[in-house]
Amino acid sequence: MASAASVTSLADEVNCPICQGTLREPVTIDCGHNFCRGCLTRYCEIPGPDPEEALTCPLCKEPFRPGSFRPNWQLASVVENIERLKLVSTLGSDEEDVCQEHGEKIYFFCEDDETQLCVVCREAWEHRAHTVRFLEDAAGPYREQIQKCLECLRKEREEIQRIQSRENERIQVLLCQVATKRQKVIFEFAHLSQFLEEQQSVLLAQLEKLDGDILKQQDDFDVLVSEEICRFSSLISELEEKNGRPARGLLTDIRSTLIRCETRKCRKPEAVSPELGQRIRDFPQQAIPLQRKMKMFLEKLCFELDYEPADICLDPQTSHPKLLLSEDQRRAQFSYKWQNSPDNPQRFDRATCVLAHGGFTEGRHTWLVKVDLAHGGSCTVGVVSEDVARKGELRLRPEEGVWALRLAWGFVSALGSFPTRLALGEQPRQVRVSLDYEVGWVTFVNAVSQEPIYTFTASFTQKVFPFFGLWGRGSSFSVSS
């Protein structure tokens, strides 16, 4: 069946140029154009300005004779078919509402058979005992069910979209973490490569020095041996010559000759001195620092790949008014001048401390703290629980939800139940803090020497935050990943 658009297009092609409607009893004039018979007759009856002037076609203005109309039966048949198609197209939308069996309009719905019925179907024997309702009445409960299904489906779709959004964000985070680890591996191996090249140069230089010392001692040995061989060769020649003389010649100065031979001191030179030999035997000890460095490198690399670098920013809402925070919120400095900071429940009011944004409820995280105590004072670094006291005195110990170190000029203390001063190889100025939430470890390491400083063991049950404290004019710290 032709579509409504195609039928309308065909109908436009058989319109009368005079009335703009569908051609009725189409006739053709001399120029070949077609018009409705009635329209063209009325057109010919309209008097013109000159009664003697011939009539012209309304379209092309070609003259024609009024009695020259020719009925166009073929076109009339086409117009009739187009009209029929238009009617079918108009009624096509109602065909679905008509019973295919009886040709009657459908009014009812049989709920038992889930079938739409006309009046004749309704009276049929097979539907008399069934529940039959009007279409709209029967559709009502189904509309309600559909509405409930739509609500459920929309909620599930929204949930899936939320999951998609969340997982996409998680994927982006993981991609960033992988990129960070990639850069870390590249950086660490580049650093190791430089160190290995330097160590190779040092070891090769030492081997070159040993080569030179061995060759020098070989030259000295060769000279000494040559001198000894010459001395012994001279004595041998003298004795051979003396032994070949007659008795009188042999006995002349014989005692002096024998004494010189018997009292000779034979020097037994060594090609390699004991000191040089010991240096050669001790050379493998020169690789011990390299072995130690490789061990530290692997431990550090595994550690940094295992722990996620935390993007730490200080939270100004928690900062004590005596702490000056940098614009990027990654550095803090102590000042005796109080800042104009509004009071709020999150802010420390007595302890000169500040927390980081965010906090952690899972995972392994690490961050770097660079401490500057050039003018004295102290700095406290670690983690605290979310409910740590913000107002009044803050006791820095695990029982109060604080796991931290205090770095002061000349000493470092672990702030346990009782503060413990730590014996360290060197005073740390860069401390790497690492948190393993599930295991419950808070680990501190000297970021420069990689020397372990201290490890707290805890059982975390709520969110924990990176924690920092300062005291003393000019003391400051900065944080990074």
Automatic annotation (TrEMBL):
Residues 94-135 form the B box-type domain. The keyword Coiled coil applies. Residues 143-170 form a coiled coil. GO terms for biological process: innate immune response. InterPro entries: B30.2/SPRY (IPR001870), B30.2/SPRY_sf (IPR043136), Butyrophylin_SPRY (IPR003879), ConA-like_dom_sf (IPR013320), PRY (IPR006574), SPRY_dom (IPR003877), TRIM/RBCC (IPR050143), TRIM10_RING-HC (IPR042784). It is found in: Cytoplasm. Residues 292-481 form the B30.2/SPRY domain. SUPFAM superfamilies: B-box zinc-binding domain (SSF57845), Concanavalin A-like lectins/glucanases (SSF49899), RING/U-box (SSF57850). Keywords: Coiled coil, Cytoplasm, Metal-binding, Zinc, Zinc-finger. Belongs to the TRIM/RBCC family. Interacts with IFNAR1; this interaction prevents association of IFNAR1 with TYK2. This is Tripartite motif-containing protein 10. The lineage of its organism: Eukaryota, Metazoa, Chordata, Craniata, Vertebrata.
